[in-house]
Amino acid sequence: MLLIHCPYCDQTLPEAEFAYAGEAHIARPEDPSQLSDEEWRDFLFIRSNLKGPHFERWRHVHGCARFFNAVRDTVSDRFLLTYRAGEPRPDLSTPEAAQ
Amino acid sequence: MMTSQTHDFTADAGARVRIEALAPVARFSLRVRAAGRPVLGRALGCDLPDRVGETARAGGRVALCLGPDEWLIQAGEDEADAIARAGADAYAEAPHALVEISDREVSFRVSGPAAADLLATNCPRDLDRLAVGGATRTVFDTAQVVLWREADDAFRLDVWRSFAPHVRALLEIGQAEIAAGL
Ligand SMILES: [Zn+2]
């Protein structure tokens, strides 16, 4: 079983307590009524579907219940790092992020 | 003459691990922002710890930090009204949500030298890292539970009422397997 570090509990815990919640850093448009159908479609459905480090949301649903963000390598399924919701998207080229 | 031998697994099983259904208690779910935490601690007569998994106890009440702004409060069954009133009286000073959930859950105690082994059959947590006196929300099979460690070899499970027969059945299967030496 995968172990995932929850940034709110500050513990590394079994995957069975967590739920995946889609790609991270997708901002909801301020005024959806101003969007074209294509732009609204892109917001709702179009995702990057990366091969490699993927920024995604998780929820510690059977623990502290918080949503947070994670970077997971979609090839190896390895979690590179996790961070609290609302924090800026980390730059993976910095040494701290590489930890 | 025919002889037969029967083996009472239930009697043996109790020697290694016991499963008990516990009497009802008052249970409350509390949500409050950081600024209101000390106010609610004073109102309830029990500090609200600020680290997930920590508990605080005072005057027969216990507060468990479940999340950054979420606590589980438990007390004697006859204290429910007093707790609800204390929350209502503090509302103007510290807005919060205090919801009675006494009837939502039932509790089981799992105790004995094989208690941790029995829980490990269905709980993915590393129980060695759950300190005595601590507690956490986690899962047992697919049911969400709050797991309390009362002593090295004694745990309590708070289970949503509708999942309780499922959890109890799994515990009893594990108990029989432990008794049979599996
Ligand atoms: Zn958590």
Automatic annotation (TrEMBL), chain A:
Q: Which InterPro entries match?
A: SoxD, SoxD_sf
Query: Which GO biological process categories is it annotated with?
Result: tetrahydrofolate metabolic process
Which Pfam families does the record match to this protein?
A: SoxD
Show the NCBIfam families listed in the entry.
Answer: soxD
Q: Which organism is it from?
A: Limimaricola pyoseonensis
Q: What is this protein called?
A: Sarcosine oxidase subunit delta
What's a Gene Ontology MF term here? sarcosine oxidase activity
Coiled-coil boundaries? none
From TrEMBL, chain B:
Gene3D superfamilies in the record, alphabetically?
Answer: Heterotetrameric sarcosine oxidase, Probable tRNA modification gtpase trme, domain 1
Q: Please name the InterPro entries in this protein's record.
A: SoxG (IPR007375), TrmE/GcvT-like (IPR027266)
Sorted alphabetically, which Pfam families does this protein's record hold? SoxG
The protein's superkingdom reads Bacteria
Give the protein's recorded name: Sarcosine oxidase subunit gamma
Q: Which organism is it from?
A: Limimaricola pyoseonensis
